[in-house]
Amino acid sequence: EAQVTQNPRYLITVTGKKLTVTCSQNMNHEYMSWYRQDPGLGLRQIYYSMNVEVTDKGDVPEGYKVSRKEKRNFPLILESPSPNQTSLYFCASSLGGQRYGYTFGSGTRLTVV
Amino acid sequence: GQNIDQPTEMTATEGAIVQINCTYQTSGFNGLFWYQQHAGEAPTFLSYNVLDGLEEKGRFSSFLSRSKGYSYLLLKELQMKDSASYLCAVIVTGANNLFFGTGTRLTVIP
């Protein structure tokens, strides 16, 4: 089944403790992206990647890192999480970005205390 | 910057027709998407418009006017399961990322 898999689905952590949210897609998509979703603000892009070893900042990249060492994986790294990073995170991938839009993972609800 | 506006909330009756509007002002335009998102779940693709006009897909239709920076999503024969948020998103020329509006929360009542 074609899908984008994120883990974990839920995570509660403490301020400053490094964490990684994994994302993997099995559709051989070139484009991958991370979004965060907050009430009243909608989906905002954090980082995106157009191919292996090619990444770029989205609208809200501060406090996040990404890597794209393999085509299928695009992990999101929070080196020192803070409470304002409490949010619902979505990973998404796309065949061509335009006509096909993005396929989204199931989401990761992160709480930083 | 990119600006995409949608109404925050709408309510409609089961069996009726509802139109959700989206206006956008972006630095270039390369297509507009509509997504459906149930609470706590991932957005799912509904439609894509890049040329002016109406695209119909079953009970759902989407319209685009590029000159007006305007789109709408039309839902016919509303069902209770259509209660969800509907997200308008634009791809900007030269970019490969989607810029989203804040979404319209639709509630379908009996």
Question: What attributes does this structure have?
Answer:
heterodimer, A: 113 residues, mainly beta, seven-stranded mixed β-sheet, four-stranded antiparallel β-sheet, 0% helix, globular, B: 110 residues, six-stranded mixed β-sheet
Description:
Chain A is an all-beta fold and 113 residues long. Chain A has strands at residues 4-7, 10-13, 19-25, 31-38, 42-51, 54-57, 65-66, 76-78, 87-94, 103-104, 108-112. In chain A, strands 2, 4, 5, 6, 9, 10 and 11 form a seven-stranded mixed β-sheet that branches. Chain A has a four-stranded antiparallel β-sheet with strand order 1-3-8-7, with no helix packed on it. In chain A, strand 4 and strand 5 form a beta hairpin. The N and C termini of chain A lie far apart (36 Å). Chain B is mainly β. Chain B is built from no helices and eleven strands. Chain B has strands at residues 3-5, 9-13, 18-25, 32-37, 44-49, 53-57, 60-65, 70-75, 84-91, 98-100, 104-109. In chain B, strands 2, 4, 5, 9, 10 and 11 form a six-stranded mixed β-sheet that branches. Chain B has a five-stranded antiparallel β-sheet with strand order 1-3-8-7-6, with no helix packed on it. The mean pLDDT of chain B is 93.
Give the SSE layout.
The complex is a heterodimer of chains A (113) and B (110).
Chain A: E1 4-7, E2 10-13, E3 19-25, E4 31-38, E5 42-51, E6 54-57, E7 65-66, E8 76-78, E9 87-94, E10 103-104, E11 108-112
Parallel strand pairs in A: 2-11
Antiparallel strand pairs in A: 1-3, 3-8, 4-5, 4-9, 5-6, 7-8, 9-10, 9-11
Chain B: E1 3-5, E2 9-13, E3 18-25, E4 32-37, E5 44-49, E6 53-57, E7 60-65, E8 70-75, E9 84-91, E10 98-100, E11 104-109
